[in-house]
Amino acid sequence: VFSSVTSVLNMSIFKDQFVLEDLIEEFKKKSTALSFGPLQSNGHISVQGSFPAIELLRDFLLLKAKSLSEKDKREESRSHQRPKRRQQQHSLTTGTSNFIRDAGGEKQVVVLDTDIYHYMKYFFPRTFLVNDDVVISDITDGDITMVYIENAGSRSDAGQVLRVKEKIENQSMKLHNALRKERIYFKEHVRDEKRRYKWVCESLKPHYPSVLVIPYDTHIDVIGNSSETLEFTKDVSS
Q: What are phi and psi of 178, to 5 degrees?
């Protein structure tokens, strides 16, 4: 059994989107069970720690790289379209999970698609309902949300943390197979248009009780099952 492993990460793929030193500092805060070496000029950095902790960092990096790739594709597609309101379908990323064992007990981490996380929080809040022995926290970074589940005290049952993690994981997988996201871009970024879309969405909500609407400065995300999401988007656009 390996009590500790060392891995070399190639961070150079992130250099165009992030300041690598700041990104590594973020990793250090999120992965306290790992030890990081100095960042090399070629973007390589050595990381040492338990195998589960290394796996968790790997999953986070893979999802972060995927989110950047999808963002680049959206930006490229957007640049080739006329500046008018348009709809766009988006896939929802599956979540991954892992755990870190430390001196205080077991900490479970679930990596979720942010849209699925919002949907769960809104329609399935009991998924995140825990007793005083368990603490849940989250960190959202664009398309990815990290959900941390850990013991509140040394006397807590580690099995509770695992059960909460499994409940979140199972619910997210069900939603991933059922949900669809449509994106409606604003024609013009003016207050009146945004207000009109907000009013239309609010008026339609009673007819689509399972649809989640998330407004942003440049667009509206509509999340729900396939048929309701499509119908809602058509009604908004009509």
A: -110, -25
Cα–Cα distance between 186 and 180 in angstroms, integer? 20
Q: Is the pLDDT of residue 118 over 90?
A: yes
**b/e per residue 174-196 (b: at least 16 CB within 10 A):** ebbeebbbbbbbbeeeeeeebee
Question: Quick check: 232 pLDDT over 90?
Answer: yes
Is 60's pLDDT higher than 80?
no
What pTM was computed for the model?
A: 0.60
Report the alpha-carbon distance of residue 189 to residue 204 in Å, rounded.
22
Judged on CB neighbours under 10 Å (0-12, 13-18, 19+), 80 is exposed
Q: What is the mean pLDDT of residues 97-110?
A: 56
- Contact assessment for residue 14 and residue 58, using Cβ atoms and an 8 Å cutoff: no
With residue 65 as reference, give the H or E element that holds it.
Answer: helix 51-79
For the chain, what percent of residues have pLDDT higher than 70?
77
Burial letters 14-25, b for 16+ CB under 10 A, else e: beeeeeeeebbe
Specify the residue for token string 């059994």. Answer: 1
Contact 39, 24 (CB under 8 A): yes
Q: How many residues does the chain have?
A: 238
DSSP assignment string, 69-100: HHHHHHHHHHHTS-SS--EEEE--PPPEEEEE
Instruction: List, in order, residues 6 or more apart from 201 with CB less than 8 Å away.
Output: 213, 215, 220, 236
pLDDT, one tens digit per residue, over 161-175 is 888 888 998 898 888
Tokens standing for residue 176: 């991933």
Local confidence band at 77 (pLDDT 50, 70, 90 cut-offs): very low
